[in-house]
Write a structure and sequence with these properties.
By secondary structure, the chain is mostly helical. Strand 1 (57-60) and strand 2 form a beta hairpin. It has a two-stranded antiparallel ribbon. It is built from five helices and two strands.
Length: 192
């Protein structure tokens, strides 16, 4: 069906449609994988450990211990923290998939597409903030039972967090600029 439509479409639009179609399916596969990973992480909430995750070591500073050595409440806190971050990633991938679906239809300036661009930027910003807070939360949760003086607060800022903050701000700004462009185009169409 797309090939029939594409014969009537300029080449520059066909390129956009083709790349968008590929990305839509790639992101669909990523979503399936992310949901599967989230399901496997959720299993940890119920005390099941099919992949022997409990044998993994948790280390912050000079403190190194097995995940199984942590009290159950702290394990649950770590799992919930990971699920929240994974949920943010799922939202980003879902928003990106919606964008590529719109681009495949050559729908660039509709209010829905512009809203999706804005939502993608907001979700990138949310993920960046969650990623910034992940290390401190995990370090405290991993050492909370060791008592006063042994609790570790590990703060790290890496390139990924900065990248997602900048990328999120770029998407939000781009959505606002495109919305203004669409309004200007609409005003110009009314005068003609």
């Amino acid at each position: 069906m797309i090939d029939k439509i594409q014969s009537d479409v300029p080449i520059r639009h066909r390129k956009i449609m083709r790349v968008s179609q590929i990305m839509k399916w790639f992101l669909s596969l990523c979503l399936i994988l992310l949901v599967l990973i989230a399901s496997l992480i959720t299993v940890e909430l119920f005390g099941l450990d099919p992949f022997d995750v409990g044998a993994n070591m948790v280390d912050y500073g000079e403190i190194e211990r097995s995940y199984n050595d942590l009290p159950k409440l702290q394990q649950i806190g770590l799992v919930i923290s990971e699920l929240v971050i994974l949920g943010a990633i799922i939202f980003i991938v879902w928003d990106m998939r919606k964008l590529f679906c719109a681009f495949q239809r050559l729908d660039f300036f509709s209010p829905k597409t512009l809203s999706n661009i804005l939502n993608t930027g907001i979700h990138f910003l949310i993920f960046a903030i969650l990623d910034l807070t992940e290390e401190p939360i995990h370090s405290v949760l991993s050492t909370l039972d060791l008592g006063e003086g042994n609790i570790v607060l590990n703060i790290e800022i890496e390139g990924g967090e900065i990248f997602f903050l900048i990328f999120g701000a770029l998407f939000v700004t781009l959505a606002w600029v495109l919305r203004e462009a669409a309004l200007i185009q609409k005003e110009n169409d009314q005068f003609v």
